[in-house]
Design goal:
2 copies of one chain form a homodimer. By secondary structure, chain A is mainly alpha-helical. Chain A folds into 2 domains: 63 residues, Arc Repressor Mutant, subunit A; 137 residues, GntR ligand-binding domain-like (Four Helix Bundle (Hemerythrin (Met), subunit A)). Helices cover 70% and strands 3% of the residues of chain A. The first copy, chain A, contains 10 helices and 2 strands; from the N terminus they run H-H-H-E-E-H-H-H-H-H-H-H. Chains A and B meet through helix 3, helix 4 and helix 7 of A and helix 3, helix 4 and helix 7 of B. The first copy, chain A, binds a DNA duplex through helix 2 and helix 3.
Chain lengths: 213, 213
DNA sequence: ATCGGTAAAAGTGTCGACACTTTGAGAGCA
DNA sequence: TGCTCTCAAAGTGTCGACACTTTTACCGAT
């Protein structure tokens, strides 16, 4: 058998396509024709097909009944569902994260939150936000949970990009409520109170539902 | 574009392979060579490849670094992780299920639990157990959550089959504790107390961790 | 009998081709 | 101008082939 399955063209195409979607270069609803992508990437259709299957299971593209593939768009109720799923996963992750939580973790999150307070645009704040949540999920140290979380992360990110496109972020200020929620979560994690950490995480995510739609 | 993506050979191979794995006909650790499967299913390698990719993302098979594909086996700690993930997903689903819960749902679950009490072998009980959890998850009416739950369900089922193989279930009696937990969950759902339903579900699943390893 | 080396067998990643289906662009008609 | 029908263009599902790599089975030497 050939090279490691991580360094093949199918995986490369998968990562590249995902980056193009979550960065907004590929707009929601765009048709993804296999011959076109194959030409663009300098490969045949086989690796492209594999990449599309992986992206579909990640929820970033959709196969229409006709067979066509398009970049997925997220309705308000779909985003609500995604956020509820995030609350479930990340709430459990926060609970589990207490097992291995260290002083370094606390310091890292404090730095992150401080940076959030100084953020001057929505894109930068979002990146910090995602990093913070990623840190907690990873610290849950549960491969199954992490694997379930990843699609949600990409869907979330793809939706955020769509939001940037609509609102020209001139009058931007970090939301005080989000910062407060992050501090509350960090406090629970640092003090080692799993139930409270879990609840803080879930409430924080579900609270965002008001503007996610 | 051709026939609906649900009625193609790739999907057929996916479903068929999954059935063979969760039914135990394909033992854990078995090598899944594409040419062999293609011959067995009377197709070329292309649909088989697609099916294997889907199965890998479902967590039922594993790609080794060498490129080989094998039916996944579950270690004790992996099962613990899977059960923790189930607790997260199903706990949230139970909470959400209260929105649409009806009298018919209550009746259906009562019937299910009554059948569990009369079950005479582990396989039958497991099927009822899975049905019950499936019912609750579906009633959560959250597509994202359901989609995340499916891989866990198949992994859970694949592991159960492995358990049957080991213990010849001669001296079988339904576990009183499981029945009690199911009744407690149903009570919370029927009475419309979301927080309690969620907690009942999570505790029930995490309690099983003692014998799952 | 065991061990090491060698060559054949089997397997994966990728490619191009073909049949069939859907899309849609343009011609013909009202 | 607007509508319908027809036919070409584009796309998907599937197949067989090829190059390269790993595995394995065999054979000889010790």
């Amino acid at each position: 058998m050939p090279r490691p399955r991580a360094a093949n063209q199918a995986t490369a195409a998968h990562l590249r396509l995902r980056r193009e979607i979550v960065s907004g270069r590929l707009q929601q609803g765009s048709a993804l024709g296999e011959p076109g992508l194959a030409r663009r990437y300098g490969t045949s259709r086989a690796p492209i097909r594999e990449a599309l299957i992986a992206l579909e299971r990640e929820g970033l593209v959709r196969f229409e009944k006709t067979g066509r593939t398009r970049v997925r768009s997220f309705s308000g109720s779909e985003m609500r569902e995604i956020m509820e799923a995030r609350a479930a996963i990340e709430g459990m992750a926060a609970r589990l994260a207490n097992r291995l939580w260290t002083e370094e973790d606390t310091v890292a999150l404090e730095k992150n939150i401080a940076a959030q307070e100084r953020a001057t645009d929505l894109a930068a704040l979002s990146r910090l936000d995602i990093d913070l949540h990623h840190h907690v999920v990873t610290r849950g140290d549960n491969a199954s949970l992490i694997r379930l979380w990843e699609p949600l992360r990409w869907q979330w990110e793809a939706h955020l990009v769509e939001i940037y496109r609509r609102q020209s972020g001139d009058d931007f200020v970090p939301e005080k409520e989000t910062i407060r929620a992050h501090r509350h979560l960090l406090k629970a994690l640092a003090e080692g109170t799993p139930a409270e950490a879990s609840e803080a995480m879930m409430n924080h995510i579900l609270f965002n539902l008001r503007w996610a739609r």
